[in-house]
Structures are given as C-alpha cells and as structure tokens.
Amino acid sequence: MQNKLLKPRIPSVENKLLGFIEKHVVVIAFFVISAAAMLIRALLFDHLSIDAYNFLIPWYDALSEKGFAGLSQPVGNYNILYQTIIALFTYLPIKALHAYKLFSCLFDFLTAGLVAYVVYKSFTNRPKLKALIAYTAVLLSPIVFLNSACWAQCDVIYTFFCIFSVYHIYQEKYVSSLILFGVALTFKLQAIFILPFLLFVYIYKKRFSILYFLIIPAVMVVLSLPGLIMGRGFSEIFTIYLNQSSQYQSMSMNYPSFWLLFKTEGLDSFYKEFSTVAILLTFAALLTLMIVWLKKKVSFSIENVLIMAFLVSYTCVLFLPSMHERYGFIYEILGLMLAFWFVKTIPLLVLMYLTSFATYSNYLFQLTTDSTTLCVINTLVYLAYVIYLSKQLFKEETDTAVKAKQA
Question: Which residue ranges make up each domain of the chain?
Fold first, then answer.
C-alpha cells in the first residue's frame, strides 16, 4: 500500500502529450530543425560580404532604376535569367541584400528536401529517420548556410537542379534530366561540372539520341526570354559564359586545387599555356574514369549514379584552372549523400568540409590558412575517394561474378 502511494503519477494530459511526441517524433524534429535552420540564417542576413557590396548590390541598384527595361543591357557578369530575378527583386518591399539571401535560402530548404527524398526512397530500413538526418545534415552544414545566408551566393540553386537531374538519370527519365540540367546551366556556368557524366550516360546507356542534348540550349533560350524580349541579343545567352570563363587569369582562385602543389605565381605568368595543360589533364582524368566504367560495365543503381556524378564533378573542380572556393558545392552535397550508403567515407567527408570551411573563412572572415596544406589535404581526400568508391562501384559486379563461378 505504501509503495503504491509513493509511486509517481503523471497527469493524463501530460501522459497523452508524451505519447503524441513519441508517436510523431520525426515530424516534430523536422519542424524544430527547420526552425533552427531559419534562425541561423536570420542571424546572418545582415552580414555584407565583399561580393555583395561590390557586385550584387550595385547590380540591384542598376536594375532598380529601370525595372525590367534594364534587362535590355547586361548588368554584371551573371546570365540573363539571374538578371531577370534581380529585376523581380527590385519590386519587393525588402532590402536588396535580404532579397538575394531569401532566394538562395529557399533553395537551401529545397535541396535539403530533395536529398532527404532521395535517401527516403532508397532505403527500406528506417527510411524516415535517415531522411531526417539527411535533411538536417544539408540545412545545418556551415558550407550551405554560409554560402547563401552569409555570402548571398546562389550555388545552392544550380546544385539543386543538378542533383535533381542526376536522380532522373537513375530513374531513366532522360528528357526531364536534360531539362533540369538546362535549368541548372541557365542559372550558373558551374553546373557544367555534371555535363561529362551526362555524356557518359549517353555513350554507355544508348537510350537516347545525341540530339537530345539540344534540349539544354533550348531550355536556356526559353528561360532567357524576358531579356530577349527587352532587346538582348540571342548570342548573349551563351557569350556571357564565354566571357566568364576567360575573366580570371589565375590557376587557382582561393580553391585548394591540385595546382597549388606548385608555385602558382610562376604558373600564372604562363597562364595560357598551363591552363591548357590543366584542361587537358582534366579531360584525361575524366576519360580514364569513364573508360574503366565502360569496361567494367558498371550498373546504374542509385548509389553508383551518385558515385559517378560525385567523382566527375570533384575531378573537374580539382584539376581545372581558375576555380573559386565555392565551385566545390556540387560534389560537397553529393559527398554528403554518399555517406548514407558508405559510412566509411564520413571521415573523408569531414576533411572535405573542413577544407572548404577554411577556404570560406579566408574570404568571408579574413582568417589566414596555409593554401598548400589545404591543397595537399584536398588532393589526398580526392585520391582516397577515388580508390574507395571505385571498389564500391564494381563490388556488385564482382559479387555477381563470384556467385556465378561458385554455381
């Protein structure tokens, strides 16, 4: 009797509340994490980066004077689509800086949702929990919220469409994949890091004509119609990117690329020659990977598709000249996704993200880090990924061959 009296009792209302929380813990966690992610971004919204001060805000001011009529002339060095979006910003009753950041942060959440969806659809064991972890990992990644909410950059936008495009390759929806890639490329030139993978799919799968690639420029033209209507030349849709690619005359632009292993000052003196060497080396590295994939007859499971897109984009950024620190955004998100299939890559992922965070800090907060050290770490991480993921890529074929031999 005495023990019964001493036994603590929870009020029925509280008990029901605890039961509700236990039953819907994943949904509740989703809203709590989303709120935390919003708060983090809100705290960074008033930070004015050098890029925003020197470029984004002046572009906004130039377009605010004329509105859509201002699309008749190039403003800055971004494409016509993004200039159209900036023109739309000028009609919003908010600060220019906040408009840029809100748009990019919207895609932070869309990208997190897309990554969570891919993870959810790919696993049968506790898929909701894994999807929640994926959603959290993207939204709370410093690389993601610093890029959008602090820097006011738009790398997450084209990355969203690139990942969507890659996922459609896995689903064998080739037309929609090329449409999505066209949207990505219309937003930013750096989406091109995924193009070699799409070309490999065309050669290997033999499921669609080379003419399907005309979808990409067609999408670019459609999305540039506001500028064309206002008087921009048709050729500007593409020459904007040609001008961007020749704008920087340095082997590395704060990205810890392979070329930092050498004295870049000396290489930059002969930029034309060494940039050509870098492009040819990149081509050779990509070709080597793809020949091996062809010979090994790699399957197109979701994890293999992500591996190939990851290795292609990482190879491009590591070896091409004139790479900025933000250009690794695509492979950083793909690397995060791969960690759900290959847990052993998590230490490499952490090193990759710490390296990127260091380069971001160099630019955003003027924190000095040794570029050669970062370059060595980045190159070793890349090589480790190539070795480990290549083994995983062919594991399915090896297991099948062993079983067939045993039978």
Answer: 26-37+50-246, 248-395
